[in-house]
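Ticket opened by: R.M.
Priority: normal
Category: complex prediction / small molecule

The reporter submitted a protein together with NAP and asked that the result be attached to this ticket for the collaborator who will pick it up next week. Submitted input follows.
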Amino acid sequence: MSQHRALVTGGSRGIGRAIAAALTRAGHEVTIVARRRETIDAALADGVARRGEALDVADGDALGALARSGGFSLLVNNAGGASTAPFGKTDTAAFRRMFALNVESAVAATQACLPGMVERGFGRVVNIASTAGLKGYSYVTAYVAAKHALVGLTRGLALEVARKGVTVNALCPGYTDTDLVAESVAGIVAKTGRSEAEARGHFAGQTPLGRLVRPEEVAEAALWLCGEGAASVTGQCIVIAGGEL
Ligand code: NAP
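Result attached by the on-call engineer:
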């Protein structure tokens, strides 16, 4: 596999960290982005990436400046997150926050990286969407809407750049064993008094597989999409969810 410069947003923990580590192991020169310097430094100390920048991906100007300057041929738009509330208590400001975090960040990074990819005749954009980009879940309407938008961005852009050596795909994980699910487990324990094992079992039980997806399993798919062998795969949304969909 040729070696490339890679940018992984949200690469200090969870799915992004597993992807960054897999790309690094494959010989790519990886930069990660996250908000907190200490989690970035911990990931760098573990050899997950070559360098790391502390910034909030919702700040499109800062993310765009980094993405433009790095010569990245591999871009993994992974940073994202969910907020939980009934629709009636999810105001437009909450929708905008979800879109800024999950969609506009991917737009800013991709627009900044794309001219270089096209010039080099090679590029891979991997958007980490979710099963929530393909089906509904209650009490997370803003997240579901934002992830559907990220899937739409993937499908539309893939067609625009299909003849330029650039592929654009989405990965749609189901419930994955990361801090994001751990926070939801803690919320259920606090609100319902259920044990942690019961709360984790609730998420694991959503899939025919009967367990949470492992971050490394998402990373395997990202690594494959970034390879030259996946040149004919574009505009796809690959579900990694133990049979949930
Ligand atoms: P996670 O364990 O909470 O890790 C999130 C990573 O993103 C961390 O490195 C975090 O570092 C960084 N991050 C979060 N907000 C950021 C921001 N505003 N700016 C820059 N960095 C930010 O999350 P995860 O579960 O791995 O989720 C990663 C992606 O997968 C998300 O897009 C999520 O929607 C998607 N996903 C997750 C699941 C799941 O069940 N876990 C399922 C489907 C899809 P800092 O906190 O230091 O910023």
